[in-house]
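Handout, page 2. Input:
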Amino acid sequence: MLRGRKLTYSGDARTRPMKDRVREAVFNLLGPGVQHTVAVDLFAGTGALGLEAISRGAARAIFVEQHFPTAALIRRNAAALGVADRCEIHSADTFIWARRGPRLGEAPLLFFCSPPYDFYVERRAPMQELLAWACQLAAKGHGVVVEADERFDVADLPVGMQWQTRSYPPAV
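Output:
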């Protein structure tokens, strides 16, 4: 639907967009399972994951991005792509937003968790808690995609879900 359209990116060092080849590989693995889901893009950055999910058939996307100028950029990109009516953008700390128990609807949920890689080391316990929360909700619907680097210990992934690990250096 949105194939070939470019997103505006500020170049801000706080935002590390997922590499195009990694994003393509992720969505190839997900295949048609994206259709009719609600994509929840945690640590949304440019919003590329949630917007790609909409492009591939997600009913809507929820974006959580703490950096206000970057959240505003997601709003502008969604408007430019003509999908703003299917996007819900929260300028919030992802950890706090999740702890507040947001209403996510009844549709199957597809979580994307692509935080700053340092969070897996410096904020290990909150990241484990966040992933457990996402997995609990996704178990009722669809799944969770986690992007990290080589410092991430896959043993930190919540049990009870089938995890597939792929390496796209520096991403895992």
